[in-house]
């Protein structure tokens, strides 16, 4: 549990985030000197975040690789979307864009929905079980995708199995880092969140490179091997600092959170953000190809012996690198804004990032050139990367007890999960009906714009119309 101290390092007894009653402790350099024997014998311990040191930064490394595989894999689905839609060898070639996007949406939905269970499980001391589940399910899903031959096979393997694996490891990675950082918490979370951007660059490029030479089946297997290797790192290095009791049972819902209007409105804003922001990521490649902005898909050998594959008619492969370009842009977006969060406050950073993402999403269909689509992908990656990585910081501050952070994160992610589930398939249905990308653009952009209005409402309720205040 994170505590506040005075200038001499003594725990402030008037701070509600500090140690429980009857536990008077002194904290020095991140270590606890217990003066209450009863508190020590009952396992109640108070910690201060060390804000650095080998063990603290090792947690950032572990959380980085969880993000590499969680949001990194979710952000990779755009290349699968394009392959399933356009490759002559795709088993989903006859499926609509909406039907295909349900697979990626289910994957993202389960990533957050499983957080509802993994949050309390994390609070109860079962972090290693969650990380082991992630290490098992994620590679298994890729392996099963490689042998799938029907739509429901792909849904179960790539949507359900991988989604459960990603969700099992996600909440521990979000909740561990704040235990080790207080003053530089947002910066540390931003550095860990860059794993999602790096994963969103590595996985699509690896998929495309292996697809041309080894075919779809072995491309999926290679992604499975990479996910197994990288998920083994957080399993080995992540360590819980808070002295949780493994036998302590946690509720799935903290009713105190539902009585907090700021938290409730924030959850609604997060639902709208996640409803809209994935749409360009899923469809930016197919948009560029359909408009003739970049190369087209042609029939090339995919290595499976059936003569069908996935290639670029212009020979430059730019269509396949739009998603890595977008995710590369989000790397800076996850670092720079979170560095500012520590100085300006999360709402002061999250609000302009959400507004900028909304404007870009609304301008997306007007792009008509190769340079324009590259600039759009870079800027959209920057704004959405910073936006998504900054969403966890306010959730942590809303918790009435830092030992319940996992439950609060899980509750918020439960709400936002339905946004992820509904967003891309709804955009795909609109695309099928209208046969142009203006509808999906309006759907995603308006959702993000409404989220911006809600964030403004929260800020006004918290500090009024004062601009120069950290919030």
Automatic annotation (TrEMBL):
Keywords annotated in UniProt: Membrane, Transmembrane, Transmembrane helix
Keyword field contains Membrane: yes
Pfam families in UniProt: MFS_1
Gene3D superfamilies the record matches: MFS general substrate transporter like domains
TM helices/strands, residue ranges: 54-80, 100-122, 129-149, 155-177, 189-210, 222-242, 263-283, 318-337, 349-367, 373-396, 408-431, 437-458
Compartmental location: Membrane
Entry annotated with the keyword DNA repair: no
GO terms assigned for molecular function: transmembrane transporter activity
Membrane topology: Multi-pass membrane protein
Name of the protein described by the UniProt record: Major facilitator superfamily (MFS) profile domain-containing protein
